[in-house]
Amino acid sequence: MHFATLVSGSSGNATVVGHKNRNFLVDCGVSLKALLHNLELIDISSSEIEGIIVTHEHKDHIKGIGPVARKLKIPIYATAGIWEEMTSSLGKIDEQQKVIISDQFSCAGLDVQVFPTSHDSRESYGFRIQSPETGSFQSKALGIATDTGIITEEMNRYLKGCDGLVVEANHDGERLWNGRYPWYLKKRISGDRGHLENKQLAEGLLEWIQENTERVVLAHLSEENNTPELALSTILKILKNSKVAKENPELRLRVAPRHTPHELIILGED
């Protein structure tokens, strides 16, 4: 199984996940032109995209879904509540492209489990994505969870032991509270239905990372209240002397670029 963030942050979010030549998108908060360009940069053809799975209805996650779904003629997977909130923003979508999901489904040959996150949207979800076990190739699991103000019990259950993780390290608490954002926005971001702070995520990683975990990509960083260097240094400092670090010395942590794709990560490949 492979994956890569295509864009990441409050200006837009999209991730590609796949197995062999079959792929889907998790969110598409970027223009059709930008999406196709970023897919090309990591050598994935748009003809190999088989669907779009939606985490929640905020604009930075859905603004390109309508044009992309129409152009590629692919289905959109979302819960009933998300469909109610986002339908008017997508433009004309054929009925056969509308797929309502609940707790578990399959897309592009991969099994997807749905779990709730805690965000100020109608509904907000993360996903545990599992590849099939074929021949000598073991099944791999990828966990994706962004846009959550707290670490939920469901996140702990579904993200623990994943081989790869794409998870939110949105802000540094000190930079947020000492920054120029208005008070109401600081309260929103730091609240239980806002976004994860670097140290919060580190505490989650101590729970989720196991010996088999290969790669962690830090996503949805705030341009104003975080930096890639600060996110990495804060999290690595907390992980440094932990049981996690001792049991998994080869673990690689990276930060998702804001406007360009991350390199394609293939789980199980050095």
TrEMBL record:
Domain Metallo-beta-lactamase positions: 11-171
Pfam family, one: Lactamase_B_2
Cleaved signal peptide residues: none
PANTHER family attached to this UniProt entry: EXODEOXYRIBONUCLEASE WALJ (PTHR47619:SF1), METALLO-HYDROLASE YYCJ-RELATED (PTHR47619)
Stated name of the protein: Beta-lactamase
Taxonomic path: Bacteria, Bacillati, Bacillota, Clostridia, Eubacteriales
